[in-house]
Amino acid sequence: MTICRCICIFILLLFLSCITGCAAHKNELADTLPKSGHTGKVNAAAFSPDGKYALSGGWDMTVKLWDVSTGKELKTFTGHTDYVTSVTFSPDGDYALSGSLDKTIKLYDISTGKEIITLSGHSGSVNSVTFSPDGRYILTGSSDTTIKLWDISTKKEIKTFTGHSEVVISVKFSRDGRYILSGSSDGTLKLWETAAGKNIRTFTGHSSIVGSVAFSPEGKYVLSGSWDKTIKLWDMSTGIVKRTFRGHTYWVTSVAFSPDGEYILSAGGMDNTVRLWETHTGKELKIFTGHSGYVSSVAFSPDGRYALSGSWDSTVRLWDISTGQEIKTFGQ
Fold it and tell me: What pTM was computed for the model?
């Protein structure tokens, strides 16, 4: 293991310990900070399938539901006992899913706000959660270096994917559900066959932690964002890097494809920006500025017209893709 790799792992562990080491102050912060919106840093944000709602999760151990058109907070989902790291909607929009440093995954009913399932099995923090395209399964990535597949109907773990040598930070399903993509602090992406649980390709080329991954909508490419400050577009069938995007001045913490695959969004951590790129040229088209803290999460709206971002400034922001202007701030 190189000195550089050791330093990166140390920083990641310090980063996670910083998140987990503030428990004594959680209640105090909740009492002193404003009650509207999150009372701590936002780690994750996601659009609903119809684009009308948004979810966010963060250091206050809650998941929040927002009305995108008004910016109004509609519900707060509670139950986690440590910081929320990842959130997403079910494909039908009826459920909210969250992962946490408390090592659990929780499923909530959007209409009632009630927690309906808690899944336990990881021995480390759950850093990424997502649904299968048919909504029947849940996929999770953890600091215990594994990826787990869960059956929602039985509430059971049905498969564990092993192969990463370090923390798994990001997991995604392909659009057809046949494949799984993962990114890790070991500096690699891995492509897995869902049914067999087999690692069929490992993508190497980043010089630091891979913090976010995504499949292109048509399934030909995969995308990765890294702590080496770059974004890479890979040919899924060959594992070859097709393009490297440079511009961020800090870790790339989150990446997303537009619904048509023509554009890419990225979050640049402590450079406090969201950036828009043209996929097939690598050209940086826009820089979205306004966050006053580490930008942790980005997402495209289902129609591709808007961007959503979550930040450690405790806000979620909505942006107009065409103008680059901020439309709304949730949680001010």
Answer: 0.90
Structure tokens at 97: 């899913």
Domains in the chain (CATH in brackets) are 1-158 (2.130.10.10)
Q: Is the dihedral of CA 177, 97, 41, 76 positive or negative?
A: positive
For 312, left (φ over 0), alpha (ψ -120 to 50), or beta? alpha
SS (H, E, C) 6-41: HHHHHHHHHHHHHHHCCHHHHHHHHHHCCCCCCCCC
Burial 22-51 (b: 16+ CB within 10 A, else e): eeeebeeeeeeeeeebbbbbbbbbbbbeeb
Q: Which two tokens stand for residue 321?
A: 């893709």
Residues belonging to the chain: 332
- C-alpha atoms less than 13 angstroms from C-alpha of 13 in its C-beta half-sphere: 9
CB-based contacts of 172, cutoff 8 Å, min separation 6: 130, 139, 180, 181, 182, 213, 214, 215
* pLDDT tens-place values along the chain, 332 residues long: 554 454 454 445 444 544 444 433 343 333 333 456 999 999 999 999 999 999 999 999 999 999 999 999 999 999 999 999 999 999 999 999 999 999 999 999 999 999 999 999 999 999 999 999 999 999 999 999 999 999 999 999 999 999 999 999 999 999 999 999 999 999 999 999 999 999 999 999 999 999 999 999 999 999 999 999 999 999 999 999 999 999 999 999 999 999 999 999 999 999 999 999 999 999 999 999 999 999 999 999 999 999 999 999 999 999 999 999 999 999 87
Sign of dihedral through CA atoms 54, 59, 63, 65? negative
Angle at 44 between CA 328 and CA 48, to 5 degrees: 65
